């Protein structure tokens, strides 16, 4: 199976608690009516070794997105990926333990 993978870690001295991560693809889209949406945001599934959306960043974790029939990246070939105008954004949310 094909996957988009990256590592995330907390290098700060204070820990992030109640952390969660989500991913989005941001790209220009055209609706069926011809309207151009310059920043279309598509949520994509983020998976980790723990198996839940909530993560604990004691050590770096590998976050992955499985590219299957439900993925917006399914129809994109490796050669097309270089020329596409899109961004994959990972959003890490949490609370700093000192607050």
SSE layout:
Layout: E1 2-8, E2 16-30, E3 36-44, E4 47-48, E5 54-55, E6 61-67, H1 78-83, E7 86-96
What does this 3D model show about the protein?
By secondary structure, the protein is mainly beta. Helices cover 6% and strands 54% of the residues. The chain is built from one helix and seven strands. Strands 2, 3, 5 and 7 form a four-stranded antiparallel sheet that branches. A three-stranded antiparallel sheet has the order 1-6-4, with no helix packed on it. A hairpin with a 5-residue loop joins strand 2 and strand 3. The termini are far apart. The mean pLDDT is 85.
Keywords summarizing the entry:
three-stranded antiparallel β-sheet; 6% helix; mainly beta; 99 residues
Task: Give a quick rundown of the structure.
With 99 residues, this protein is mostly beta strands.
> How many strand units?
7
User: How does the major sheet shape up?
Assistant: 4 strands, antiparallel
How would you state the average pLDDT, rounded?
85
The proportion of strand residues reads over 45%
What is the helix tally?
1
Instruction: Report the end-to-end length measured between terminal Cα atoms.
Output: 41 Å
Taking all Cα atoms into account, the compactness measure Rg is 16 Å
Class based on secondary structure composition and strand pairing: mainly beta
Could you state the order of secondary-structure elements as H and E? EEEEEEHE
Shape: elongated
Percent range of helical residues: under 10%
Could you name the ranges where pLDDT drops below 50 across 5 or more consecutive residues? none
